[in-house]
């Protein structure tokens, strides 16, 4: 009922905004808008057939309160995929769990987690002296917390591993949060404007932390924001047990509700999008036919609204916004510019080190090896971490409360995404220019000089593009902070009077001109001049290496962008000297097992042995961390025997297919696909995300659905009965309304 009500209002807003967005898109296509041309090339598909990271990690299973060793893979679309073990991954068996990390927070201590849980449960305060909710067998936990969805609990063996996994998980969150495709010039603006209009109708202005993920995830968050307080008031009084125990059920209950909301929201949103797309040809025909009349009508409406609103808006800007613009800009510029400077430094260091190593170690063969690594530098979570960490310094202090900014995370993640894109553009431009030069080189000395010369050219281009990207980011961030504040301030005196302007719009053009949108444009114009001036002055003073707007690089490399249109460079294939190409299946297998953006320098920890030594299947709960000594088997003979039997069972793959099922016949279930999401997969084929990452995974399930058993080359999985043994021969009696461990479930599609 709640989902139907919220989606009904939202879909009405979406239909209105769709016409406006379509008009703006067609107008931009016809009129165009000149801007600084990017000097660096942009890679179309950065991570095709590559794995970001993979490795062993312990996961806590809530259904049976035990820790299990899992093999976690982070593919190029940044979903977290958990397999039974590495063998299951190599055999392409279905994974245990798929997690879309949009909206999650990465915590590195149980104390942080308990604080968030307690804050999300008003009135529930655990008493001191009680045993903790979660007993972690090591001192290095990693917890994924979400306000509405299921929580995930992991731990690793060392602090270095914890930092590495934390960087990987944060990269996943950053990418999945950015789930609404910017390539869509109509659907994306229509969706985000409809969300904003809906929240403003509820008197909710300012930034919103849960505008993250794909469209259906955002809508689910919108519903849960209203539904969760009612859920707590209904369920809270009925919780039983001690305070620590009573804290724990709500995340699972909330997750079950979240999955239901997701399915309902997806169905209604997809239906609304389909209706708009059906009307699109007729609307576009009207726009192209009557473009001049629509523009004239809109300008007439804007002039009337401007005469009414602008005097009040200018007073508000002068008194409440203008004095703080320079402070906000400085707070934004310092960490952002330091982050981009670190990107430049990391790129320079990697190329310089490569150049020295190539000269010392043997020319072209070593160059190919290093270029393979360099080509994915932007997607190396650990090496990029020093750049991303600079944004942690962003603090708006008193300005945050004044302008109703709930959190700075929106701006931090946006800047970090820009950093990653600029790094990849620099790397791609460098390798394109170097590839062009290789045919002309005579020896090792020529190679060294060429690399140095190309590096200097790319750094100049990087400096120019970095300045352009940062100035645009500063302007957008300032608008994001000030416009909601102004709208909230002006609402009591202006919003009620807007209805009288409706009669100025011709009925034929009512789908393309909205009074509310025109009013917001007028408010934006009232502050835009001050924002542009502040950014311009910062550039004139050369603050943080910003370039002036008058500095424009016109076609410094006229043929460079033609080079970028060619096929992607595959260094290993082109220069490996192999007489025959590998079969596609072998290349795919090799890429999955070997080609990884992160190489584990210290070698793999003996997770298989450690996991069984720490977490014996027969133990009711995890043992103390003192026994978690990597590589040291337990002394009792019985434990050694159990470990040997378990390892033999895993190596033989005995019952692997049965253990990997999710408890239902996935073939019976309809698989919901994410729509127009950067991390999603459309029915037509692989989706292209906003960062140029091709998401080539098979159709992935929505919350509450099981992983399809027969996708690709995966064998169909057996559906176990309720009396069938669980993992390692355990028998898990079924409980009404509960899932066994084999039903750990799937988070959200990616």
UniProtKB/TrEMBL annotation:
Residues annotated as domain PH: 50-174
Start and end residues of each stretch annotated as Disordered: 618-638, 651-750
Compositional bias of kind Polar residues: 711-722
Pfam families cross-referenced by the UniProt entry: Niban2, PH_Niban2
InterPro entries, alphabetized: Niban-like, Niban_1/2/3_dom, PH_domain
Superkingdom classification of source: Eukaryota
Biased composition (Low complexity): 669-681
Family: Belongs to the Niban family.
UniProt name for this protein: NIBL1 protein
Organism, scientific name: Dicrurus megarhynchus
